[in-house]
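General statements about sequence and structure are easier to judge against a single worked case. For one protein, we set the task of working out the structure tokens from the amino acid sequence alone. The sequence in question and its structure tokens are set out directly beneath this paragraph.
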Amino acid sequence: MYDLLVTSGTLVTGTGSRDGSLAIKDGRIAGVIEPGKPVEASKTIDAAGKLVIPGAIDAHVHVYTPYSPAADTIESASVAAAHGGLTTMFFYIGAVRGARQIPGTIYRAIDASGLRLDEFFPPIIAEGQKTSKIDFGIHCLTPPDRGIIDQIPAAARLGIRTFKFMLGYHPARGWGFDDRLLTIALEKIAGSGGLAMFHCENGNTIGATEDQLYRQGKYDADHFLQSRPSTSEAETVRRVARLCHDTQCPIYIVHLSSKEGLDEVRRARDAGWDITIETCPQYLLLTDEDTRRQRVLLKMAPPLRTKADNEALWDGIRQGYIDICASDHAPWEMSEKLQAKDFMEAPFGAPGVETILPLMYSEGVAKGRIIANRLVQLMCENPAKRLGVYPEKGSLGIGADADLTIIDPGAKWTVSSTNLHSRAGYTGYEGRSVIGKPVVSLRQGKVLLRDSHLEYTQPAVFMATKPV
């Protein structure tokens, strides 16, 4: 007798699809049942006409931290994610005490002095276990502070083995790394079985351009793309890929946005280097024209680029050079965006955790850009494998956590901020028609989402990652 049987759906993995049923017991997948075979279960979910995939994962979510008053807490981000069909998220937490105004400038710099990671992260993990509606892991946003760098092994012992370096911002913001300190960090990450994550833009050259445009009164939505050219992304991809190769540290490049950056990825991948690439729906679907139209609401880094970049990234997905699709959910309340006195002071980022899976199905699978198996690779299998939580997550195999997302491929709906759950209160996809929608999800074998309502609210599990 099984606890639950998900019947009559099309089971989709990264390698194939088949008709059948999934039997679940004690929160795990206990059997894959052939069509028509009689099975006894306490409860049944009929998935006829629908796709059953492993619980979808968002590998790139930002939540409220001491230095960054984002709109979404761990709890509210998880509510939005769950409504979007996700069952696991990985969110970024900066290893910093806070931020301070830099006298005589418009910038705020971060402060990491004296922070102990073995004291800093446990309360955050406890908050996630108490308030998150879905399972979660944590990435460490790593400042250029030797005291924090030396504690990388301590973070790894807590199950946090992914460390992100923010290379794309004006040095005055406090995130700039020189190659010497970065090399020390990479060696410690490699020695801890970890993964180095990079925002690949050159903050030094961007900072100079930002300053120049600001003095000219041109730092605005109409000139934003000019301030962060794709050549800056490409140069940084090339540089950090070489550093990681030389230190034998695996590399994960977040939110790749340009054809030029992808060209550098191809060179590194074709040389056999250990490099994983993520992109996001906004870099596949939106352009600089959207930034010019929506202004501060779509100020993000990297910036939205061109249709040619969109198409190059879709090609990169089809050709296997892009491994993961994530949202880079960086929510700020719309009022905070709009009340900034100028474009420079408007915060970077936009919401996306709730729309990522529906958009990738609608614009990818339904429009024939990718097949459903590739979607499962991008949002289930590959993030679970690369972030050290496979096969518990990202799999329909026997013994895996019974995390499932059931998609109705024929559901037609329209994206509207009135129906979304992030505290940001807006979306860059307002009014977009979508086909396909997550209608049911399971977490640990219990119904989490059903018909746009959340049901399962038991404590979330912190996914301590295994060595890469």
